[in-house]
Amino acid sequence: MEWTAEKVKFVSKKMSVALRHKPDRYGITLDEEGWTDLHDFIRALNRVHHFSPRLSEKDIRYVSQHTNKRRFELTDRKIRARYGHSVPVILKKERKAPPEILYHGTSHQALKSIMEKGLLPMKRQYVHLSSDQETALQVGRRHDAHPALLQINAAEAEKDGIEFFIGNDEVWLCRELPPEYIMVIS
Ligand code: HQG
């Protein structure tokens, strides 16, 4: 397969849908930690999307290594998404003390509700926070062309008993985050 950034993104998106949100649509089953058989998974992707030429194991490993974030985890025979699930899987997340400050990008429309109820996981299992402003703004642009940027007082929240987990290098996760730890910076 000749890879371009667009092609990597396209395949990565389909992989995310299958491994985080709609395994049923692909006819695959995830175990309780989100793993599925790699070869069944590749067959399912090819069956649903009619990739031509067919995606091979090498292609899937290539995409997993070349997406802009470390979204997928592979072993010899299995694959799973590292974070972002809407289907119930129990990921044994590594709990870790977060950096002093984290960020979250969102739509201006959501601000009122967020400042009332705090950040909630909505359709996912966790609230996703970013370690830097640029990543947060990128996440926010998925919801709003000119996103709002929130600063999260993560160290303070952790001190008060909120648990933080690592999603990947830039993504931090928590179950929910009350408004007192959130400040709107733009
Ligand atoms: C908002 C992508 C109203 C929240 C990204 C967000 C990320 C509220 C939206 C990862 C709310 C949910 C996750 C409340 C939260 N009232 N709105 N109380 N609490 N919200 O897509 O964080 O590229 O489920 O602000 O990069 O945008 O796919 O979450 O706008 O890391 O690997 O509800 O998904 O990763 O939207 O993105 P999402 P998100 P990948």
Residues in helices, as a percent range: 25-40%
Whole-number tally of structural domains: 2
Task: Name the beta content range.
Answer: 15-25%
Strands ordered across the widest β-sheet: 1-3-2
Order of helices and strands: HHEHHEEEHEHEHEEE
Unreliable parts: none
Number of strands: 9
- CATH fold category name of the largest domain: ADP-ribosylation fold
Shape: elongated
Mean pLDDT: 95
Number of helices: 7
Report the structural category: alpha+beta
Describe the biggest sheet? 3 strands, antiparallel
Bound molecules: ligand HQG
* Quaternary structure annotation: single chain
User: For the CA atoms, what is the radius of gyration?
Assistant: 18 Å
End-to-end distance, in Å? 42 Å
CATH class of the largest domain: Alpha Beta
Brief sketch in words of this structure:
This protein is of the alpha+beta class and 186 residues long. The protein is built from 7 helices and 9 strands.
